[in-house]
TrEMBL record:
Xref: InterPro entries: HTH_LacI, LacI/GalR-like_sensor, Lambda_DNA-bd_dom_sf, Peripla_BP_I
PANTHER family according to UniProt: HTH-TYPE TRANSCRIPTIONAL REGULATOR GALS (PTHR30146:SF109), LACI-RELATED TRANSCRIPTIONAL REPRESSOR (PTHR30146)
Name the record gives this protein: LacI family DNA-binding transcriptional regulator
PROSITE patterns registered for this protein in UniProt: HTH_LACI_2
Phylogenetic placement of the source organism: Bacteria, Bacillati, Bacillota, Clostridia, Lachnospirales
Coiled coil: none
Keyword Transcription: yes
Pfam families: LacI, Peripla_BP_3
Keyword set, alphabetical order: DNA-binding, Transcription, Transcription regulation
Amino acid sequence: MRQKVTRNDVAKLAGVSPAVVSYVINDSNYVSQEKREAVLKAVKELEYTPNVFAKSLRTNRSNQIALVGDTLQAELYEELSAQLFQKGYFSCLFYSQKEDTFINRLIEGRFAAIFMASNAFTAEQLNRIVQNGIPLILYQSREYIGLDPRIVIRAPDIYNDVKQILNYLIMKGHTRIAFVAPLKYRATGADGDDFRARAYSETLQANHIEVNPDFFCRHTQSEASLLEDVVYIMTSYNASQRPTAFVASDDHMAAQVMQCIRKLNLRIPDDIAIVGSGNIASSQITTPELTTIDSGIPDFASEVADALFCMANGETPDDRLYKGRLIIRGST
């Protein structure tokens, strides 16, 4: 059985002290280029693997980063996980739980950093994470009062993305537009405090269009409950009153709405126009192809991964919102 290679073995082969080996591996202090190259050469030759568990005991932090969401945003989390792995971190994916014990468990997990893509928690709960020394990036989708300034905001510009979609549909002549909130999302209706609801109501009002609260699908506990809202809207109004367009909060839900509309023997886009958000791969394999907002997922994931890495290493990146780009396809 091969004997485990230690940091001291690397130091001896490279002709440096064990401390210098640590500086190079953790990129935590200045080391001359000559010594750095000697250490890296020794690491490769000896096939040395640092003991991440020993490091976590020293730093009271693991080499894991928590990704928390209300639903599985597969393409985003795949990109994030790959980027973080290249930086030496493993990703742990969690579905958000509404109980306060969920926040406590996250804190107990000693994560190097957390990416929170959920609007389920209060400012006090989020603040408690950073107050316990864990860096947090928030994918912000609603207003918070009293949010700790140490929490970094990285998110799509949700308000302006929804506004852009609605103004496009209104320009196309639509005045009866329904909105489908995200799955398992804290939604209180068209008069809610989240950015999607605000953009929906304020954009309609700015265009002198009456806001019908029935047109905001907010039963987000399951896909079935959201689609029940869609069916209710379409069957509760006659042809001259029901919506002529649906805006879905993401492309996956938009595709589900398209299937639902077809089951009602309505045509897309002749009877109903449909718009999604995200520009994920499946948006181009629907029939017709889906009009959507391109959120630039690869670039967004890369910048979030960089920010999480910086925060895990004691730096504080700036807040940033990412403006989407409307991609017009056959569904409108």
